Amino acid sequence: MPEPSKAQASLIEQVGQIAAGLAQTFAPFCEVVVHDLRDPRHAVLAIHNKLSGRATGDPATELGLARIADQDYPQIVANYTNQFADGRPAKSTSIGIRDADGRYVAALCLNVDLTLFRSMQSALEQFTATDASPPQESLDPANAEAIRRRIDQYAASLASSPQLLKADERRALMRELKAGGYLEIRRAMEIAAAHLGISRATAYNDINKP
Predict the structure, then answer these.
(1) CATH code of the domain containing 71
(2) Predicted confidence band at 170 (pLDDT cuts at 50, 70, 90)?
(3) How far is CA 67 from CA 149, 157, 163, in A?
(4) What are the residue ranges of helices labelled H in 27-89?
(5) pLDDT of residue 183
(6) DSSP 3-state of 11
């Protein structure tokens, strides 16, 4: 059995490889940092897609110090609001890495620059905006969008899309739509079937099949 120090070094090396892969996948919008918590004064071991202005050899953050001080500190702190030194908004996730004895020896941190995404969001909101006083016209049955939105929410909860739902997932969804009163809407079955990419016959069968 290897010495603990060697085991820790091997563990941190593997975290470094994961960080490099994540950085390549999410470049250039996500900074990925590996912290070696065994040396808090020089904790930043590697930093990819530099966005924060930090460099290797920089000290541990407050979160890193909290992990060192408290082994019961949450291992994953996800999607918390952050900010880069120049004021750019960020979304961060920090994952603590424990050794075989349960001690925090490293941390893997992801910092996403939200600037571009918020600009894109504003542009999309402007593009999809409609006149405040439009003519009273609709090309869709009333409340049809509510059905589509609920289907999208259900699929997203399974990390899927409406057209990729499995048969049992789709049947559960159709029963949920029925229980929620969504299928009382005019042409509801046609709307649901079209959004799911199935025939109306299949949609009816999904409701009736246990």
Answers:
(1) 3.30.450.20
(2) very high
(3) 40, 31, 43
(4) 62-69
(5) 86
(6) helix
